[in-house]
Amino acid sequence: MEHATRIHAYGGPEVLTYEPVDVGAPGPGELKLRQTFVGVNFHDVYVRSGSYRTLSLPGIPGLEGVGYVEQIGAGVTGFQVGDRVIYLSSKYGAYATSRLVSAEVAIPLPSGISEADAAACYLKGLTVQMLLHKLSPVRPGSWVLIHAAAGGVGQLLVQGALKLGANVIGTVGSPEKADLLRKMGCKHTILYREVDFVEAVHSITEQRGVDIVFDSVGKDTFAGSLEVLTLRGSLINFGQASGAIAPVDVSTLAAKSLTLSRPIIFHYLTRRADLEELSGLLFQALLDGDLRVEPPITFALKDAHQAHALLESRKTAQSIVLRV
Questions:
Q1: How far apart are CA 285 and CA 279, in angstroms?
Q2: Which of 155, 172, 291, 293 is the most buried (most CB within 10 A)?
Q3: Helix, strand, or coil here: 131?
Q4: Is 118 exposed, middle or buried (0-12, 13-18, 19+ CB in 10 A)?
C-alpha cells in the first residue's frame, strides 16, 4: 500500500502524520515514481509551521526525491520503466512512498552517485550552482563571506567558492563547525556568537572588505553584510533563517554602488535546458570530488516528525534524508 506523510494543520513536527494514500496512474507528461530517498530542507519546516503558506492543506510537503520510474504517462519520451531519476518540484508532494511528477523535472541520476547522497544535496547543490554561476561572478582572488557556512548549503558553497579560487570567510556557531570548515580548506572562520563578524571581516581583509556576501540568515545579518562589502560589492540573500528583512532604502546601496539580489532557485529552472545545465554542473562536481557530501542522517518516512525536530534544533551540520 502507498503511504505519505501529510500535514492537516500548521504547527510543530507533531502535525506530520503518516497515512495511506492513493497515488493513481500518471497522466499525460507525467511519470509515476517508486521513491527510495527524500530530501529534508528548512523550506519544509517553514511550510509545515505555516511561515510559508504555499502548500494547500491537507497536503504532502517535500520538494525533492530520488526514485525509480514505475509507469510512464502518454507523450513522455526519454524515459523507461526502471530508470533511476532525481527531481526537484515546486508542487511539493515528496514525502511519499510513490508519487507522480512531471517528466520535465525528472533528471537521470548518474550511477556513480548514491541515492541517499543525491537526495541530501540536490536542492542545496542546485542552489549552490545557481549562486556561483548565475549571479555575481566568483573569480580567483575574490573575497567572499558565507554566513551559516557549516550548514547544508553553506558547506557546499564553501567548497565551490574555494574551487573557483576565492578567499573564503565563513561564519559559524561553534568551534566544532569551524574545525569542519578548516578541514575543507577554509582558512578564515568567524565564531559569530563570540565576536562581531563585521569587525572580524575588516580585520581579516585588512579593512578592504569582501566582494560578495552569501547570506541565508536574513534579518540578523543583513545590515552587517552591507557594511562589510567593498566598493561595487554584492549581497546575495537567499534565505531568512533569523526572520524577514525590513524594507530597504535603495539609497543605502548607493553609498558604495552595491548590488542586492534575492534569487529563488525555481526562477533559474524555468527551462529544461537550465535544469539540465545546473544538474550537470552539480553531478560533475560530485563525481570529480570537487564537492563532498557528508553522509546524511537518515530517518524512516514515517518518522519525518523526528527529522524536522532535529533539523530545527540546529544540533547537526549533516543533511537529513527520509528513507522510503
A1: 10
A2: 155
A3: helix
A4: buried
Residue 264 CB-density burial (10 A; 0-12 exposed, 13-18 middle, 19+ buried): exposed
47 membership: H or E segment, kind and range: helix 42-49
Share of the chain above pLDDT 70, in %: 100
Residue 136 CA to residue 143 CA, distance in Å, equals: 12
Cα(97)–Cα(187) distance, integer angstroms? 43
User: Which DSSP string do the residues of 262-323 spell out, in sequence order?
Assistant: ---GGGG-SSHHHHHHHHHHHHHHHHHTSS--PPPEEEEGGGHHHHHHHHHHT---S-EEEE
CA distance 97 to 99: 7
In angstroms, the CA 14 to CA 229 distance is: 42
pLDDT in tens, 100-120: 999 999 999 999 999 999 999
Q: Using CA of residue 120, residue 123, residue 125, residue 127, what is the dihedral sign?
A: negative
What integer is the mean pLDDT of 137-142?
94
Distance CA 193, CA 197 (A): 9
pTM score: 0.92
What angle in degrees, to the nearest 10, is found between the helix axes of 152-163 and 115-133? 60
Tell me the pLDDT band of 139, cut-offs 50, 70 and 90.
Answer: very high
3-state secondary structure of 55: coil
DSSP letter for 46, please.
H
Using the structure block, give the residue that is written with the C-alpha cell 494514500.
Answer: 21
Instruction: Identify the pLDDT of residue 120.
Output: 96
pLDDT in tens, 25-36: 999 999 999 999
Nearest CA-CA partner of 106 in 279, 266, 265: 279
Which grid coordinates are listed for 218? 536574513
Domains of the chain by range and CATH? 3-121+266-323 (3.90.180.10), 135-262 (3.40.50.720)
